[in-house]
Amino acid sequence: MTTDGALARLIRSSADRTAAARTEVCDLCAAPVADEHAHLYDTGQEEVRCACGPCSVLFADAAAGDGQYRLVPRRRLRLPKVDTAVLGVPVGLVFFVPRADGTVTAEGPSPAGAMRWEVETAAWQELAGTCPQLATVEPEVEALLVNTVHGLDEHWIVPIDDCYRMIAVVRREWRGLSGGGRIWPAVEQFFEDLTERS
């Protein structure tokens, strides 16, 4: 055995392990998943989990698995301006998630992750009266995503995994105490990349 051969095998082995570590897998069965794959919302842990095609089919019915895992829908719907002032959340980058028990939470990104507030249920119902599409938001797995920072006027119904992606963008780009100069262009790019889908 030559040194070059052993060294080459070591380099290949290390590269294979690095590539394997980057490959996403299904959080239920550990099968590799494609770049575009389904997600499940774990209602107990309040986390999004990756799912392969076969596992996602198992949870297409909301009652499957006693409701612990909910298949995250793919729908994205751009809304006209929605006056969220009635909800009493004084931030411009936030998402509102109706819960299965009828409550509604507002969550906004911060350098440490999501901050959460409770929203008055009556206020959410009042807002849904002015914007009927909000009544179609699936509890736990869809949200009203709002960005009114720097004069923007973005209002979307999105899957919950989009909201967590937005939080990840903020955490990744935040610098210093005020966020720095990279955060808002990155957030604006996130919204520019959103496309409607059913």
UniProtKB/TrEMBL annotation:
This is DUF5947 family protein.
